[in-house]
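USER: For my understanding, would you kindly supply a protein sequence with its C-alpha coordinates?

ASSISTANT:
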Amino acid sequence: MLRYQAGDAAAFEPLYRRHRDGVYRHLLHGCGRPAIAGELFHDVWLNVIRTRADWQPRARFATWLYRIAHHRLIDWWRATPPGLEPLPEPGDDDDAGTVPAALWLPRREQPDEQLLSAERGQRLRAALARLPIEQRDAFLLHEEGGLSLAEIAEVAGVGRETIKSRLRYALARLREALADDRT
Protein backbone atom coordinates (compact mmCIF):
# COMPACT_ATOMS: atom_id res chain seq x y z
CA MET A 1 0.00 0.00 0.00
CA LEU A 2 2.89 2.34 0.67
CA ARG A 3 4.06 1.86 -2.92
CA TYR A 4 0.57 2.49 -4.29
CA GLN A 5 0.18 5.52 -2.06
CA ALA A 6 3.48 6.87 -3.40
CA GLY A 7 2.21 6.67 -6.98
CA ASP A 8 3.14 3.13 -8.10
CA ALA A 9 -0.14 2.20 -9.85
CA ALA A 10 1.06 -1.38 -10.45
CA ALA A 11 1.13 -1.96 -6.67
CA PHE A 12 -2.67 -1.78 -6.60
CA GLU A 13 -3.11 -5.10 -8.43
CA PRO A 14 -1.62 -7.37 -5.73
CA LEU A 15 -3.64 -5.59 -3.04
CA TYR A 16 -6.83 -6.04 -5.04
CA ARG A 17 -6.10 -9.70 -5.84
CA ARG A 18 -5.31 -10.53 -2.23
CA HIS A 19 -8.43 -8.94 -0.73
CA ARG A 20 -11.15 -8.92 -3.41
CA ASP A 21 -12.75 -12.27 -2.59
CA GLY A 22 -12.94 -11.70 1.15
CA VAL A 23 -14.31 -8.18 0.77
CA TYR A 24 -16.93 -9.31 -1.73
CA ARG A 25 -18.03 -12.21 0.47
CA HIS A 26 -18.21 -9.89 3.46
CA LEU A 27 -20.45 -7.49 1.55
CA LEU A 28 -22.56 -10.29 0.06
CA HIS A 29 -23.19 -11.86 3.45
CA GLY A 30 -23.88 -8.42 4.87
CA CYS A 31 -26.56 -7.46 2.36
CA GLY A 32 -27.65 -10.84 0.98
CA ARG A 33 -28.02 -9.67 -2.61
CA PRO A 34 -25.33 -10.24 -5.25
CA ALA A 35 -26.25 -7.20 -7.34
CA ILE A 36 -26.10 -4.88 -4.33
CA ALA A 37 -22.92 -6.55 -3.05
CA GLY A 38 -21.35 -5.86 -6.46
CA GLU A 39 -22.26 -2.18 -6.26
CA LEU A 40 -20.97 -1.91 -2.70
CA PHE A 41 -17.79 -3.76 -3.70
CA HIS A 42 -17.22 -1.29 -6.52
CA ASP A 43 -17.79 1.64 -4.14
CA VAL A 44 -15.32 0.23 -1.61
CA TRP A 45 -12.50 -0.08 -4.14
CA LEU A 46 -13.24 3.34 -5.62
CA ASN A 47 -13.01 4.72 -2.10
CA VAL A 48 -9.65 2.97 -1.63
CA ILE A 49 -8.39 4.62 -4.81
CA ARG A 50 -9.78 8.05 -3.88
CA THR A 51 -8.51 8.02 -0.29
CA ARG A 52 -5.17 6.24 -0.72
CA ALA A 53 -3.36 9.38 0.43
CA ASP A 54 -5.19 9.17 3.78
CA TRP A 55 -4.01 5.65 4.61
CA GLN A 56 -1.63 5.51 7.54
CA PRO A 57 0.46 2.41 8.27
CA ARG A 58 -0.69 2.38 11.92
CA ALA A 59 -2.75 -0.73 11.21
CA ARG A 60 -2.74 -3.43 8.56
CA PHE A 61 -4.09 -2.52 5.15
CA ALA A 62 -6.82 -5.15 5.63
CA THR A 63 -8.07 -3.32 8.73
CA TRP A 64 -8.37 -0.07 6.81
CA LEU A 65 -9.98 -1.80 3.83
CA TYR A 66 -12.56 -3.64 5.93
CA ARG A 67 -13.34 -0.43 7.80
CA ILE A 68 -14.23 1.15 4.45
CA ALA A 69 -16.34 -1.92 3.55
CA HIS A 70 -17.97 -1.92 6.99
CA HIS A 71 -18.93 1.76 6.72
CA ARG A 72 -20.23 1.33 3.18
CA LEU A 73 -22.39 -1.61 4.33
CA ILE A 74 -23.72 0.41 7.27
CA ASP A 75 -24.55 3.30 4.93
CA TRP A 76 -26.47 0.86 2.73
CA TRP A 77 -28.36 -0.52 5.73
CA ARG A 78 -29.30 2.98 6.85
CA ALA A 79 -30.67 3.75 3.39
CA THR A 80 -32.51 0.41 3.17
CA PRO A 81 -36.23 0.60 3.93
CA PRO A 82 -37.24 -1.02 7.26
CA GLY A 83 -38.34 -4.63 6.94
CA LEU A 84 -36.10 -5.41 3.96
CA GLU A 85 -34.30 -8.46 5.27
CA PRO A 86 -31.08 -9.74 3.67
CA LEU A 87 -32.29 -13.09 2.42
CA PRO A 88 -29.81 -15.43 0.79
CA GLU A 89 -30.50 -15.62 -2.90
CA PRO A 90 -30.07 -18.82 -4.84
CA GLY A 91 -27.22 -18.25 -7.18
CA ASP A 92 -24.52 -19.85 -9.21
CA ASP A 93 -22.56 -20.68 -6.07
CA ASP A 94 -25.37 -22.96 -4.81
CA ASP A 95 -24.39 -25.59 -7.29
CA ALA A 96 -20.72 -24.71 -7.55
CA GLY A 97 -18.53 -27.60 -8.51
CA THR A 98 -19.55 -30.69 -10.38
CA VAL A 99 -21.01 -33.81 -8.84
CA PRO A 100 -18.58 -36.63 -9.52
CA ALA A 101 -20.06 -39.72 -11.16
CA ALA A 102 -17.42 -42.15 -9.93
CA LEU A 103 -18.22 -43.80 -6.62
CA TRP A 104 -14.58 -44.46 -5.78
CA LEU A 105 -14.00 -40.83 -4.88
CA PRO A 106 -13.33 -39.81 -1.27
CA ARG A 107 -16.43 -39.48 0.94
CA ARG A 108 -16.46 -35.66 0.78
CA GLU A 109 -16.70 -35.92 -3.01
CA GLN A 110 -19.57 -38.42 -3.10
CA PRO A 111 -22.83 -37.05 -4.60
CA ASP A 112 -24.80 -37.44 -1.35
CA GLU A 113 -22.09 -35.68 0.66
CA GLN A 114 -21.95 -32.83 -1.84
CA LEU A 115 -25.72 -32.47 -1.63
CA LEU A 116 -25.52 -32.32 2.17
CA SER A 117 -22.72 -29.78 1.90
CA ALA A 118 -24.80 -27.58 -0.43
CA GLU A 119 -27.77 -27.82 1.95
CA ARG A 120 -25.53 -26.90 4.89
CA GLY A 121 -24.25 -23.92 2.93
CA GLN A 122 -27.80 -22.74 2.28
CA ARG A 123 -28.69 -23.20 5.94
CA LEU A 124 -25.57 -21.30 7.00
CA ARG A 125 -26.38 -18.40 4.66
CA ALA A 126 -29.95 -18.32 5.99
CA ALA A 127 -28.70 -18.44 9.61
CA LEU A 128 -26.25 -15.61 8.87
CA ALA A 129 -29.06 -13.55 7.35
CA ARG A 130 -31.07 -13.91 10.57
CA LEU A 131 -28.25 -12.64 12.81
CA PRO A 132 -28.45 -9.03 14.01
CA ILE A 133 -26.30 -6.90 11.72
CA GLU A 134 -23.71 -6.16 14.43
CA GLN A 135 -23.18 -9.85 15.18
CA ARG A 136 -23.13 -10.82 11.49
CA ASP A 137 -20.64 -8.07 10.72
CA ALA A 138 -18.31 -9.09 13.56
CA PHE A 139 -18.54 -12.75 12.52
CA LEU A 140 -17.85 -12.02 8.85
CA LEU A 141 -14.98 -9.65 9.57
CA HIS A 142 -13.43 -12.39 11.69
CA GLU A 143 -14.13 -15.33 9.37
CA GLU A 144 -14.03 -13.75 5.91
CA GLY A 145 -11.66 -10.89 6.59
CA GLY A 146 -9.36 -12.75 8.96
CA LEU A 147 -9.28 -9.74 11.26
CA SER A 148 -8.36 -10.03 14.93
CA LEU A 149 -10.69 -8.92 17.71
CA ALA A 150 -8.73 -5.68 18.11
CA GLU A 151 -8.88 -4.99 14.38
CA ILE A 152 -12.64 -5.68 14.25
CA ALA A 153 -13.12 -3.36 17.23
CA GLU A 154 -11.19 -0.66 15.39
CA VAL A 155 -13.22 -1.18 12.20
CA ALA A 156 -16.56 -1.13 14.03
CA GLY A 157 -15.58 1.69 16.36
CA VAL A 158 -16.43 -0.24 19.53
CA GLY A 159 -14.46 -1.90 22.30
CA ARG A 160 -12.72 -5.26 22.03
CA GLU A 161 -14.98 -6.78 24.71
CA THR A 162 -18.05 -5.71 22.73
CA ILE A 163 -16.68 -7.55 19.69
CA LYS A 164 -15.98 -10.63 21.82
CA SER A 165 -19.59 -10.59 23.00
CA ARG A 166 -20.94 -10.11 19.48
CA LEU A 167 -18.84 -13.00 18.21
CA ARG A 168 -19.87 -15.21 21.11
CA TYR A 169 -23.57 -14.50 20.54
CA ALA A 170 -23.22 -14.95 16.78
CA LEU A 171 -21.49 -18.31 17.20
CA ALA A 172 -24.10 -19.48 19.71
CA ARG A 173 -26.94 -18.54 17.34
CA LEU A 174 -25.23 -20.17 14.37
CA ARG A 175 -24.58 -23.36 16.36
CA GLU A 176 -28.20 -23.45 17.42
CA ALA A 177 -29.44 -22.87 13.87
CA LEU A 178 -27.16 -25.58 12.49
CA ALA A 179 -27.48 -28.02 15.42
CA ASP A 180 -28.99 -30.89 13.44
CA ASP A 181 -26.05 -30.81 11.01
CA ARG A 182 -23.94 -32.43 13.73
CA THR A 183 -26.22 -35.44 14.10
User: Anything to note?
Assistant: The chain has one domain: 2-81+103-182. The helical segments are 2-5, 12-31, 34-50, 61-79, 111-130, 133-143, 149-156, 160-177.
